Amino acid sequence: MTQVTNTPYEALEVGQTASFSKTVEERDIQLFAAMSGDHNPVHLDAEYAKATMFKERIAHGMFSGALISA
């Protein structure tokens, strides 16, 4: 299990790094669509997404933003 530590702003130093990874799963996309009301087919419909510049479904931008700010 990953340990999360709370570092006060004053303790941050130039050069420090942190990392986070998450495998986005189908349920993440479905739950975020339900919660946000964003039912854009580029997120939910694989056939629709194939015809876009992305060529496949993509996660909601704000879902990604929520992970960054967590």
TrEMBL record:
Pfam families: MaoC_dehydratas. GO terms for cellular component: fatty acid synthase complex. InterPro entries: Fatty_acid_synthase, HotDog_dom_sf, MaoC-like_dom, UPF0336/Enoyl-CoA_hydratase. One of its GO terms (biological process) is fatty acid biosynthetic process. GO terms for molecular function: (3R)-hydroxyacyl-[acyl-carrier-protein] dehydratase activity; fatty acid synthase activity. Residues 16-69 form the MaoC-like domain. This is MaoC-like domain-containing protein.
